[in-house]
Amino acid sequence: MRRILPALLFLLAAASANAATRIKDISSIQGVRENQLLGYGLVIGLQGTGDTFRNSPFTEQAMQSMLDRMGISTRGVPLRARNVAAVAVTANLPPFAGVGVRIDVNVASMGDATSLKGGTLLITPLNGPDGLTYAVAQGQLAVTGYVASGEADSITEGVPTAARVPNGALVEKAAPGQLSELPSIVVELANPDFATAARVADAINARFGKNTLDYGKIGGPNRPVAMARDLRSVSVLRPPNISPARFLAILGDLPVETDTPARVVIDQRSGTVVIGRNVKISTVAVTQGALTVRVTETPEVSQPAPFSDGETVVVPRTDVQVQQEGGYLAVVRGPDLETLVQGLNRMGMRPTDIISVLQAIKTAGALQAELIIQ
Fold first, then answer.
1. Cα separation, 125 vs 89, whole angstroms
2. Residues 282 and 366: beta-carbon distance below 8 Å
3. Which residue, among 135, 134, 204, 199, has the nearest Cα to 167 in the 3D structure?
4. What are the pLDDT digits (tens) for 124-175?
5. Total-model pTM
């Protein structure tokens, strides 16, 4: 019976050699992306876990500026509130999000606050890289972590100084650009590969190259609908008689058989080994054994004879044991992933041994794949 290696994870690059994936699952459209937003705000309503104004003077300045805008003058008056915290607010503006759409925001403390639990974010403008305000955030914070402390000990679970406000931001300005304004449609692959890019282009040409009645004349006899530009992107002609959104919806559902390079990824910290589907090992002989040397010290006390002038001394006693396991020579040949995994399991090696063997096989030139060590 083969022994299954504990704590070793073999992930298959694909469940089947003939498995097909939708284009939308392996790619994105160039120009259709999120936009990052950033803002600075205040969280109030904390139960004595906010910033100390002595260590976080920017929190006091923000409070004074906010009160001044509300017609309350606090200049020259020392503030000692501990229920306020200065926070950084971040959000991602979805592509083509219109005015009035709500988005989630993340909140993180900037001062020495110990917890944001129970706080409320005050109205905070969220700006883009161009300095314009695209959304405004406000609402009750959802904190998953907590902190509890006493006079002699404290416990912290999670990150109580980071929170989230679901649907906490309201889009006030749409990001520039529309789908119809894109100069061209470019499909970008998540995992760049020349073979996958060629198959994506072939699938698009097979679907839209012949159906000219519904979508109009796309391309021509000397110009296909889609063409792979490089290993990352595929250029697609825009159809004249169909909206870009509907065209991309049909295009995204086309099945494509992906191809991945032969790679072996090793995480030495967790003992995880990920072997790709196309990894192969040339015929190679491998020997692996563990040498254990155990040294045990059991000192004994030597007592002199009665009425003698001798002294009581400690006599050292050392026990040395040598044990060697394994050490046999095995022939490993991996024409495919399944055979390779079965051969490594048959040798009964531990995850650390597997990592050492793969590194040695790569050095010997028998591993026909890229070895990535994290």
1. 9
2. yes
3. 135
4. 999 999 999 999 999 999 988 776 766 666 777 778 889 999 999 999 998 8
5. 0.67
